[in-house]
Amino acid sequence: MKDIEQHIIKLKNDLNFHNYRYYILNEPIISDYNYDEMFRTLESLEKKYPQYKTIDSPTQRVGATILDSFKPLEHRTAMLSLSNAKNQTEIINFYHRILKSLNTDNVEFVGETKLDGLGVELIYENGIFTAGATRGDGFVGENITQNLRTIRQIPLKLLGNNIPKILEVRGEVIISNENFQKLNDNREKNDKPLFANPRNASAGSLRQLDPKITEKRPLEIFIYAFGEISENNFKNHWMFLEQLKKWGFPTNPYNKILKNENEMIKYFNDMENKRNTLPYDIDGVVFKVNSLNLQKKLGTRTRNPRWAIAGKFKPKQEITQIISIDEQVGRTGIITPVANLKPVKISGATISRVTLHNQDEIDRKDIRVNDFVVVERAGDVIPKVIKVIKEKRLKDAKSYHLPQNCPVCHSPAIKIENGALLKCSNISCPAQLRKSIEHFVSKKAMNIAGAEATMSLLVKANLISNVADLYELREYDLIYLERFGKKSAHNLITSINKSKNVSLPKLIYALGIPNVGEYTSKLLAKKYGNLTSLLSAKKDELIEIDDIGPIVAESIVTFVQEEKNIKVIQKLIENNVNPIYKNKNNE
Ligand code: IVH
Description:
587 residues; Helix Hairpins; D-amino Acid Aminotransferase, Chain A, domain 1; alpha+beta; CATH 2.40.50.140; seven-stranded antiparallel sheet; five-stranded mixed sheet; binds 2-(butylsulfanyl)adenosine; 37% helix
């Protein structure tokens, strides 16, 4: 028996080591065939002697459990974010600020790439990977351990020695541009919605409840920071990065020690020049004070450390042509002009439609159909038209004017906000209704599973004319609909009923009050505690809330005083969609 246990331990260690050679060093020393053979031997031994199966075994990367939801995981030390330097001057200012605070004329930095993915934390207890989480709000993230385990670059058991009892490391999960393209090509073939960019694809992949799906996504990771480390003897950040490699973690090959401001600026420029040749997106570089002692001396502000800064690159730009301009009607009835572009790729994402905001913007930039334009995309920010290349203007370039009527219901459009915006005058406009219901059922709002596509069917069949009507639907209303069977009707009603347990902030967000996003919804939930009190919100009370200004306050009051909205909210309450605000963690 002892022999078998020893054999299993040796196989696990060998496989972990070869995993490291393959996924971290890119220098395998055995063939795939030999690796697979060892893997299968281990699998069959573990099957026969399950008492020797451990969670750090390479056979245990992909679990079989499909979760209902992710549990919260509180970070032992907050996951901070970085303040930004927009250009070289701001980097130089940062450098001098540091010298001044430390009263010295010389500080060493580490330069790193600013990766554009999803920040995560990995927790190791006695060298074994035991838990991992998203950054969340910086204090509490989501426990996504079983998904992180599927990433082959993440060691399940640390290599080497000097292994602390508790080790928390932080890094960025990314998808390379090439793999992103392949993933989207595949989704297109299978009629699945495409990811907008590699960052969204990484986030979406890590939020899968079934780890078998995450496993198929080509996720990669680079580690760049630590949380808690018991026995933290590192003198500086560079030594930490070096130790990471010995433990078997992937670190970025462009990490570099920088001795002064000239080297920092050179690094910034060099990386910006390399940007297009890297296999993944970076949106800047990060400078970190090397000495951990000095980092401690400098300390942190509420959200950002004083000892680090992100030097952001200029957003990427491309030139393309406007094929046509049409209009979109939003959930508040605002009619927005949108340009259809000859598709162009900017940092991984294909851009084919871009909002032109309003007529003023079109006139000011003199944008015409058939014009060649400079389009820019910065990370998460929606792409925009920067300017027209006038020298390339064609003879048949046509100017554009917003229509006098709503493009969907053809009711007259009215000018609002001093003529800056155009709005459909029909409050029952089907486009508005469809958009507001789509927003209501979306993931971040009521999270009614799979309902987005169904909503326009329900609107068309006159089954719903506002979001509260959803709660009065019965299975027999649905089974006669096109493409609906007993089962799908049952599923939809079940998930509608389930959504009654939603938290108050999410419900407020779902209402789609103009200018009220997730953050303001939380503030409102905290202040008013339930829907009934929210209905009596007054402008002066709202302005007193930190972070709510007069424009947002006005927009909330207008919303809760409109008769149509009051009716909908009352109907929600009657249907038991009426959560009360609980504490911070319970929401
Ligand atoms: S260090 C205390 N290093 O950028 C600083 N972050 O705004 C903690 N990021 O949430 C982060 N590359 O997700 C650090 N080389 C790098 C990074 C990096 C990307 C992300 C990270 C963080 C955000 C900061």
